[in-house]
Queue: 2 jobs
Job 1
Amino acid sequence: RREKEAYIAERLGIGFEDVVIYCPSLSLMKEAGVRVRLPGKVVPLNDPGHSPPLELTVLEEQYEALWRFYIFVPEGLEGHCAKEAAALFGRPSEHTGDQ
């Protein structure tokens, strides 16, 4: 993350401290990883090898669909940052501001 922040800062001509990448864990549902006892073993509740509850699987899939990756930069640089980030990460920006 720090390497990418430094790269973007350099490309935008700003200080490293002015770029923050926020990249949350794909699964923040810690409860889904709680260990449960099954006959003969203890496994995480969301372990795909033992058919986790359908409700849990659906919730995890919904959460993953909501996942976002953010880059924060000083006001006025959003459009330039969006272009640099798209080139760096190979995905277009979903930023809706002026680009």
Note: The radius of gyration is 19 Å.
Job 2
Amino acid sequence: MKQEQLHRLKTLADALPEDVAAQLLDYAEFLVEKYGQVDEPAIPREPLDLPRPEQESVVLAIQRLIATYPMLDTAKLLNESSELMSSHILQGRDVVSVIDDLESLFGRYYEKYNTPDSD
């Protein structure tokens, strides 16, 4: 689609009431299903090789692990990751041991993801 067409479509959608604009979006998705194809970015099935730095904060470790395991649903990891981060921040637990536990946590979730017939 040309830039002018995209601009015109956006202008038209912006002029519609919100519920009607949602219908326009539904119709566009229907047309794509029927006639087109939307290329979804491929999510790797294997963890990426992002090495652990010598010095790293818990927050940066979580960010690195999320990037290392892009195939995992981070919402499922949020509770346990938060508990580990809290043990460091609130209870003064050693950063290295917390990051070790975070790596184990992400590794376990990856194994579960990689195991057929897992929940």
Note: The two ends are 41 Å apart (CA to CA).
